[in-house]
Every structure is written in C-alpha cells, then in structure tokens.
C-alpha cells in the first residue's frame, strides 16, 4: 500500500492504539462481577395498554442475543435494569389527495435505571430514551390496528437494541 491508503491505514491503527491506551474499548467494559441481569416488566405511565410488555420482551430478547449478560430472575441477578414507559404518541405524517391519513409515526419514550445489585450502586440512569417507527395505513380499520401493533413491536426492537448498547458499551 502506498500514498493516501497507507496514510489512512496508519492513521486508523494509531487511533485504535490511542483509544486502547486510554482505557476505551469498542466492546464495552462492564464491571467484571456483572455477568447477569434481571429485567422486570417495565412500568407503564401511559394510557396505552400493554406497551410495556412489548418493550420488556424485546429487551430480554436483545440481551439474550447480545451474549454479554445472561438474563436471570431478580434474586439471581448481579444487576437489574428497571424502566418505565413515559410517553406513547401516535401522529399522522402523510395524507393522500383526499386528505385521508396514509402514514403514522409511533414514538415511545422511556426512563431507565441500571443498578449493580451486588454493590448497591446505580451504574447509569437514562431519562427520555426515545424511539420511533413509521407505518402505512391500510384501507380496513382492522388492518391499521394490526399495523400499529407491528409498529409498536418494531419500535420495541429498536429501543431494546439501544438499551443493550447503552448497558454494555457505556463503561
């Protein structure tokens, strides 16, 4: 390699070495004693029924597939992730030529607290974590309701990935 390609490669290698020397890691550095996490059902502070169940299930699944922390019952956990859904908003964002709604945006906002049970400390707190998902309106109302449920699940998956990322890479 010569010229700009070699310079870029050397620059990236230098950046990686610098970050490693400063204690940064690309995979996260949770305290060593934290190997397991409990995820109790999140509180629902909205008027929307069952949204907390979608979100809690998605977070448990995201931790399970991430592999860094094993999800266990509360009494066996090194850490606990607690959360509350504080906002659920559905807004129309696109219309057809007859002013009928054709697309909605679903937005969910959460507050989180990740606690080290063994040392009785708060590892992090995140207020107002927000995720959104857009979905198209079908002609039949029953299809629209089904699409909204799919959008909630999609938003839950996005939020869950953000939560797991916050949890394992924040340290």
Please characterize this protein's 3D structure.
It is a single chain. The protein folds into 2 domains: 1-28; 31-169, Double Stranded RNA Binding Domain. Helix content is 37%, strand content 33%. The chain contains 3 helices and 6 strands; from the N terminus they run αββαββββα. Strands 1, 2, 3, 4, 5 and 6 form a 6-stranded mixed β-sheet that branches. A hairpin with a 5-residue loop joins β4 (79-95) and β5 (101-116).
- Spans of at least 5 consecutive residues whose pLDDT stays below 50 are 3-27
Portion in helices? 25-40%
Instruction: Using the alpha-carbon principal axes, give the shape.
Output: elongated
| Total discrete domains | 2
| CATH architectural name of the largest domain | 2-Layer Sandwich
Span between N and C termini? 36 Å
Features:
171 residues; alpha/beta; Double Stranded RNA Binding Domain; 2 domains; six-stranded mixed β-sheet; 37% helix; 33% strand; elongated; disordered N terminus
Secondary structure layout plus pairing:
Elements lengths: L3 H18 L14 E3 L4 E2 L6 H16 L3 E2 L7 E17 L5 E16 L4 E16 L4 H29 L2
Give me a quick take on this structure.
The chain has 171 residues and is an alpha/beta fold.
């Amino acid at each position: 390699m010569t010229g700009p390609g070699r310079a870029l490669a050397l620059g990236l290698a230098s950046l990686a070495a610098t970050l490693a020397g400063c204690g940064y890691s690309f995979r996260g550095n949770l305290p060593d004693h934290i190997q397991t996490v409990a995820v109790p059902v999140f509180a629902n502070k909205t008027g929307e029924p069952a949204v907390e169940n979608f979100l809690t299930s998605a977070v448990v699944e995201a931790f399970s597939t991430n592999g860094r922390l094993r999800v266990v019952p509360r009494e066996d956990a090194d850490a606990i992730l607690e959360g509350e859904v504080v906002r659920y908003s559905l807004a129309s964002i696109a219309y057809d030529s007859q002013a009928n709604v054709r697309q909605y945006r679903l937005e969910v906002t959460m507050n989180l607290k990740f606690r080290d049970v063994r040392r009785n400390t708060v590892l992090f707190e995140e207020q107002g974590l927000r995720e959104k998902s857009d979905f198209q309106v079908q002609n039949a109302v029953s299809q629209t309701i089904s699409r909204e449920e799919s959008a909630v699940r999609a938003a839950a998956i996005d939020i869950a990935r953000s939560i797991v990322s916050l949890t394992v890479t924040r340290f």
